[in-house]
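STRUCTURE:
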């Protein structure tokens, strides 16, 4: 008997949560409060009550508390506290974990083979995050259906027997078509059936073709761990001879007598190999982003060095413009590298715009300019490729406003506003400065025009204003430009 098994209910719950979860002390106390009333609910409803918590860094869950009704006909013969719970066998539990919603299964089957009605309710903390699930299971009496031999068989029975194989000399057609390995052993663990994939697997792993009625442990010694598990239903991950396997064991019983064991084995070696390749690819992509960012910083340092060596006042502004452009592009890669997932190169346009604009305002501290950025409730994501184009566009237009809209000590305001319709995104950059009657041709405006037309497939224009300037960039929403969490769609009407 394990040490924790003799602990009190509260102590078991605390110890299991400390060993297997990342729950805080406050969250554990909340679970203890729920667990304190489990027995009362079990007796009141004649149901089996459980609390499951998700295991940290895992897709599995663990039973941390239970209460059985005082009944003679018990569904569970032994305590299941501390048992691992798998998604394959408890879909309702994991639905509630993922969705944070109640789930109900009217005919669930326990690992002991009893049919129960299962209700699952998520337990949430103060932040409305799911920290566990409360499970109620009530035994369902399934009536035995007797069939008159003179009557025809139940609908579809002959067809399903043909497909699965009803006689000893019939090979189940379904298992022949599946890539999973199906093995069936008798009550003495001797192999009595293997589908074609299974036969190939056993002969390769055991290096023998004499497999019929042989002890499965003698043929595949690594399965001893699986067979030694007392649970009737068990899932196990194995690595054997560079093969990654998921083994599902189901013990078959008839009137509580063991009649055999069914093994379903998935060879996920290729999947694991691809996962490793993807991880390596992620590392390479992240390294590329690092190098691009570092190279941009190197170029910026060279430009600053050239400026310190002395440039004319006429040329100085051109160097500063170049530095701002380099900084804008570098901002894209800084945001990507700040993410936990290296594969995700989508960039949040609102964050990008705030980063670019705040840098420019800080570089112009002598200017009395307020910067306003309005996302209008939108979370706008775009690919790194398009993000670089938008970064340069924002840089050029905001930079123009800072430089030319507010001469001398004139105070003012620059607004960067995002509007959206179902199909288009509009970026409005405006100021309340001195304004321009007709935009003059310049390198900056030429850059903006080319990027909008060629990279964004959009349109760039100025809107007439009584005061200041108002530039509008319109481009289509696409797989590379997506909008989420919109409070409302706003059409600029421009």
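SEQUENCE:
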């Amino acid at each position: 008997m394990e040490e924790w098994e003799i602990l009190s209910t509260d102590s078991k719950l605390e110890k299991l949560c400390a060993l297997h979860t990342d729950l805080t002390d406050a969250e554990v106390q909340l679970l203890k409060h729920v667990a304190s009333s489990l027995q009362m609910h079990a007796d009141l409803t004649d149901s089996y009550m459980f609390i499951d918590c998700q295991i940290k860094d895992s897709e599995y869950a663990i039973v941390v508390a239970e209460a059985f009704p005082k009944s003679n006909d018990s569904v569970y013969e032994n305590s299941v506290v501390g048992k691992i719970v798998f998604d394959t066998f408890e879909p309702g539990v994991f639905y509630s974990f993922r969705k944070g919603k109640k789930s109900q299964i009217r005919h669930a089957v326990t690992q002991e083979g009893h049919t129960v009605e299962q209700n699952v309710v998520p337990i949430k903390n103060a932040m409305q995050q799911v920290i566990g699930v409360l499970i109620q299971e009530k035994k369902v009496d399934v009536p035995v259906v007797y069939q008159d031999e003179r009557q025809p068989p139940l609908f579809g029975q002959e067809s399903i027997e043909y497909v699965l194989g009803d006689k000893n000399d019939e090979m189940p057609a379904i298992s022949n078509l599946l890539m999973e390995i199906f093995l069936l052993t008798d009550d003495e663990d001797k192999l009595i059936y293997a589908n074609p994939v299974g036969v190939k697997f056993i002969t390769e792993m055991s290096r023998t073709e004499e497999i019929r009625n042989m002890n499965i442990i003698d043929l595949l010694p690594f399965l001893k761990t699986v067979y030694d598990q007392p649970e009737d239903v068990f899932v196990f991950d194995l690595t054997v001879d560079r093969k990654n396997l998921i083994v599902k064991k189901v013990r078959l019983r008839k009137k509580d007598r063991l009649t055999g064991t069914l093994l379903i084995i998935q060879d996920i070696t290729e999947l694991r190999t691809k996962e490793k390749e993807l991880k390596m690819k992620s590392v390479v992509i992240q390294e590329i982003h690092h190098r691009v960012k570092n190279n941009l910083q190197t170029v910026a340092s060279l430009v600053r060095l050239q400026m310190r060596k002395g440039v004319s006042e006429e040329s100085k502004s051109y160097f500063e413009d170049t530095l701002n452009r380099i900084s804008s592009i570098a901002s894209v890669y800084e945001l990507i590298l700040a993410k936990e997932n290296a594969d995700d190169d989508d960039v949040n346009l609102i964050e990008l715009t705030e980063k670019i604009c705040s840098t420019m305002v800080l570089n112009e501290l002598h200017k009395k300019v307020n910067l306003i950025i309005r996302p209008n409730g939108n979370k706008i994501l775009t690919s790194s490729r398009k993000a670089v184009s938008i970064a340069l566009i924002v840089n050029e237009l905001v930079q123009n406003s800072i430089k030319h809209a507010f001469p001398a000590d004139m105070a003012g305001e620059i607004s960067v506003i995002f509007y959206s319709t179902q199909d288009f995104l509009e970026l409005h950059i405006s100021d309340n400065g001195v304004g321009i009657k007709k935009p003059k041709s310049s390198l900056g405006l030429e850059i903006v025009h080319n990027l909008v037309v060629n990279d964004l497939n959009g349109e760039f224009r100025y809107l007439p204003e009584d005061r200041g300037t108002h530039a509008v960039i319109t481009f289509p929403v696409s797989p590379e430009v997506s909008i989420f969490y919109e409070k409302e769609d706003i059409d600029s009407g421009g």
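REMARK: Residues 343-484 form a domain with the Heat Shock Protein 90 fold (CATH 3.30.565.10).
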